[in-house]
C-alpha cells in the first residue's frame, strides 16, 4: 500500500483505494466506489440518498440493491434522459450506417 510507505506512523488495517484488487477487476471499480459512497454517506455526513440518477448501466444499481446501504430505505433508480436519448440516437445511427447484406432493406424503411 502506498500509504504504509509514507511517514513513520504504523498504518491501521484499512481498505486501500490506491491498490485496486486484481480479483475484483477494473470493470467493477465504478460500482464498488459508488456503493462505498452510499454506505459511508450516513455515518460520515448524516445523508441518505433516496435516488440514483443512472446512465443506463444497471450493474451499479444492482450492486446498490445488493449492498442495502440503508436498512429501511430502498434506493430508487432514475434514468438520465440525456443518456437515454444519446444511446437511442447512437443505436439508430448504427442501424442506418451498416452496409452488410440484409441491412439495406432495413435502412430503406427508416
Descriptive notes:
InterPro entries: Mutator_transp_dom. Residues 8-108 form the Mutator-like transposase domain. This is Mutator-like transposase domain-containing protein. By secondary structure, the protein is mainly α. The chain folds into two domains: 25-79; 81-110. 46% of the residues lie in helices and 7% in strands. The chain contains four helices and two strands, in the order αβαβαα. The chain has helices at 29-45, 58-67, 81-97, 103-109, and strands at 51-54, 76-79. A two-stranded parallel sheet has the order 1-2. α1 packs across α2 (58-67). The longest helix has 17 residues, at 29-45. The protein is flat and about 70 Å long. The N and C termini lie far apart (56 Å). 4% of the residues are buried. The mean pLDDT is 80.
Task: Give a quick rundown of the structure.
With 110 residues, the chain is mainly alpha-helical. The chain has helices spanning 29-45, 58-67, 81-97, 103-109, and strands spanning 51-54, 76-79. The protein is 46% helix and 7% strand.
Using the alpha-carbon principal axes, give the shape.
flat
Number of domains: 2
Report the radius of gyration as a whole number of Å.
21 Å
**Which residue ranges are poorly predicted, with pLDDT under 50 across at least 5 consecutive positions?**
none
- Beta content comes to 5-15%
Q: Count of DSSP helices?
A: 4
Average pLDDT score: 80
Q: Report the major sheet.
A: 2 strands, parallel
Given the helix and strand composition, which structural class is it?
mainly alpha
Largest beta sheet: strand ordering: 1-2
Give the helix level as a range of percent.
40-55%
Number of strands: 2
**How far from one another are the termini?**
56 Å
The helix/strand order is HEHEHH
Amino acid at each position: 500500500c502506498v500509504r504504509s510507505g509514507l511517514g513513520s506512523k504504523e498504518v491501521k488495517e484499512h481498505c486501500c483505494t490506491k491498490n485496486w484488487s486484481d480479483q475484483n477487476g477494473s470493470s467493477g471499480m465504478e460500482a464498488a466506489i459508488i456503493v462505498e459512497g452510499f454506505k459511508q454517506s450516513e455515518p460520515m455526513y448524516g445523508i441518505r440518498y433516496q435516488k440514483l440518477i443512472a446512465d443506463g448501466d444497471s450493474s451499479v444499481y444492482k450492486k446498490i440493491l445488493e449492498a442495502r446501504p440503508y436498512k429501511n430505505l430502498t434506493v430508487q433508480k432514475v434514468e438520465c434522459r440525456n443518456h437515454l436519448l444519446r444511446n437511442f440516437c447512437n443505436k439508430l445511427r448504427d442501424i442506418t450506417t451498416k452496409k452488410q447484406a440484409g441491412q439495406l432493406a432495413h435502412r430503406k424503411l427508416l
